Amino acid sequence: MRYLLVISLLFATLSCSNSLEKERMMDSEKLTHLISQKNKTIVYIWTTWCSGCRKTLAETLPQLQENIDTSEYQILLIAASKNKSEVASLLSNTNVQINSYFLDFAGPDKGIFQNLGIQLLLEKAFPGEEIFTRAIPVLFLVDRNGKVLNKKLPHNYNEVIGVLNQY
Question: I need a surface site. Which of 46, 52, 103, 139 has the fewest CB within 10 A?
């Protein structure tokens, strides 16, 4: 009887963690749905090995999160990494309290596979737009209808605010 109880609890725990894990996986359908929730969405796709990504996470995004009008804007973070513990560690070292997701891509956690995953996500979500130029991080602005307003936002806070003020 004890074994049955332990197995049941283990199964319930795994089921809950799998559903939470699935909720945090990003694909083109989820991205399209999420951007439809606010008038404008700032999308940030990053990797754990990218020093520019780490700088933007530590400096620009916390300031944006603090100063943008959240009734108008949202920020979505998409980690192109399978190393969930490293992603969590990097995010916990910043003051970023933003919706964070993982890119679902095939292959190991290496540049070429991450690049292909990013490219496929963006091509499916924004057909005909050339957002991804093989440069990581990817930071862009889109409206709730999926219209790309700016394909390459700057990574400096003051410059990003300057661009956002144009919309």
Answer: 52
Place of tokens 């990013």: 118
Are residues 148 and 129 in contact, defined by beta-carbon separation less than 8 angstroms?
Answer: yes
Pairing mode, if any, of strands 73-79 and 40-46?
A: parallel
What six digits make up the tokens of 13? 């725990």
Q: In terms of Cα–Cα distance, which of 10, 105, 153, 155 is closest to 163?
A: 153
Phi, psi of 97, deg, nearest 5: -120, 65
User: Which tokens sit at 79?
Assistant: 């980690």
Contact predicate 117/106, CB 8 Å: yes
CA distances, 10 to each of 1, 15, 16, 21, 87 (Å): 14, 9, 10, 16, 25
CA–CA distances in Å: residue 90 to residues 57, 75, 137, 140 = 8, 17, 15, 21
